[in-house]
């Protein structure tokens, strides 16, 4: 796990309170839940789990994150409770967190204490334009040690 600790993705490790707003044509919906990031398989990967409510709908996602050899970029394989799955690429550099996939992208920032992530998800519309559809805030939970 020694090499992965040097990865910028180590900044994600922990339990996060997730809030946000989902923007739809007709209304804005609240997003609230929990995200967790943990090392797995001897530090070769990160397991990301999201358990959120989007409006009145519950959504769960599992994601396996694999860093490249330099621990700078990552491939993210996701699977969700709607039966959707896919692959995205990601980068964390100088406090900027970027994710890109097929018709989706995220742009956000991580504070220097690694306790807050603020950003926006965008999707491509019918006119091939990027449209913001989720404002997202993650706040790292403090876990009390025994």
Number of structural domains = 1
Number of helices: 1
Gross morphology:
globular
Residue fraction in strands = over 45%
Record the strand order, biggest sheet.
1-2-3-4-5-6-7-8-9-10
Instruction: Tally the beta strands.
Output: 10
Q: What's the pLDDT, averaged over the residues?
A: 91
Q: Fill in the CATH topology.
A: Lipocalin
Low-confidence runs? none
Radius of gyration: 15 Å
* Gross CATH architecture: Beta Barrel
Q: What class do helices, strands and sheet pairing give?
A: mainly beta
Main β-sheet: number of strands, strand sense, barrel status? 10 strands, antiparallel, barrel
The ordered string of helix (H) and strand (E) elements is HEEEEEEEEEE
Annotate the secondary structure layout.
Elements (H helix, E strand, L loop, with lengths): L1 H4 L8 E10 L4 E13 L4 E10 L2 E11 L5 E8 L4 E9 L2 E6 L2 E7 L5 E9 L5 E11 L6
Antiparallel strand pairs: 1-2, 1-10, 2-3, 3-4, 4-5, 5-6, 6-7, 7-8, 8-9, 9-10
Overview of this protein structure:
This protein has 146 residues and is mainly β. It has a single domain, classed as Calycin beta-barrel core domain (Lipocalin, Beta Barrel). Helix content is 3%, strand content 64%. The chain is built from 1 helix and 10 strands. A 10-stranded antiparallel barrel has the order 1-2-3-4-5-6-7-8-9-10. The longest helix is centred in the N-terminal third of the chain and has 4 residues, at 2-5. The model has no long low-confidence stretch (mean pLDDT 91).
Structure characteristics:
mainly beta; 10-stranded antiparallel barrel; 146 residues; Lipocalin; 1 helix; globular
